[in-house]
Amino acid sequence: MVGVTKLEVAAMPGDRDVLKYVQLRYDNDELVCTTDEVNEEENFLFDCTPTPPPRSKVLLHSCCAPCSGAMVEEMRYLMDLDITIFFYNPNIHPKKEYEIRKEENIKYAIKHGIPFVDCDYDSEAWFKRMIGFELEPERGIRCSACFDMRMEVTAAYAAEHGFSYFTTTNATSRWKDEHQVNLSGVRAALLYKDKGVPLKFWVYNWRTDAMTRRKYQVSVDEKFYKQEYCGCSYSLRDSNIWRAQQGIPKVKIGGDTAGLGTRYFENVDADEAEESQQVVDAFFKDANDHFGDAKRPQKYKLALQKSSAVFADRQKSADNVDANNW
Ligand code: SF4
């Protein structure tokens, strides 16, 4: 039975300003998100997050329609969970790309009668929180900060609106380190541990072969818009550097770059092959190697020392791709 769709703009959590600027566990720029740094309590939570009982209220943080499609099916129709989609992704850049991804997700939510919470696009706060992490490769500390920010706001909304569980679509993609994603969720849930709020981050394996295959099938059936980079300006920049080295056309945002048209999912095998483990591994190998330019971090630091004003504009416009892709 399809429920009534409710579209609303989220009232932001009261203590959000405090959450927004706290850099959790990022002492001296050291990478913290490794499994050996997960403490005993967090390990316990990783192992013990059983599937919520049927009809449980679950807040599903969603990054996009393709990542949420199969997950929504599973949660809604097989597990009989009472889900609400929570769209909070200030990382997505530029704004046009953000709007496209959001609209795709709203359409899918409406089709399935799932409540959709359209949260803020506070990209300025996102850019501020990422200062110092701009040249981090994907899966590095910038991504921990990005997941933390999104999970903290998701947890705050869940706590204020009577959800017992929250989880995220971020863990479905092969491009993501699922432990890194889950750790951010667990950390966000732990913020409520001593406040008497019974909130849990639900850890589940959404990346089985069957789920991955279904994810692509849903994306093809729905003809979802096919994004070509993780989301932030830095991932857009790095994807384009890598593509140039591979001789692949640069990323298209909303289909208007290079006049090549909007890309949609249209072939399960071909779409899945684009995200094969081989491709993913090749990208990360190059990214961790700074795409063959070992001096890249040093060049950036020197440029920043020379003139921080050069970079100041990057935070001001959510639409200015060039200013944000340094
Ligand atoms: S690469 Fe993706 S997860 Fe990492 S900071 Fe950018 S948007 Fe966030």
Automatic annotation (TrEMBL):
InterPro entries per UniProt: QueH (IPR003828)
Superkingdom, natural source: Eukaryota
Name of one Pfam family that matches: QueH
UniProt KW keywords: 4Fe-4S, Disulfide bond, Iron, Iron-sulfur, Metal-binding, Oxidoreductase, Queuosine biosynthesis, Redox-active center, tRNA processing
A single MF term (Gene Ontology): metal ion binding
One BP term from GO: tRNA queuosine(34) biosynthetic process
Protein's UniProt keywords contain Metal-binding: yes
Official protein name in the record: Epoxyqueuosine reductase
Species of origin: Thraustotheca clavata
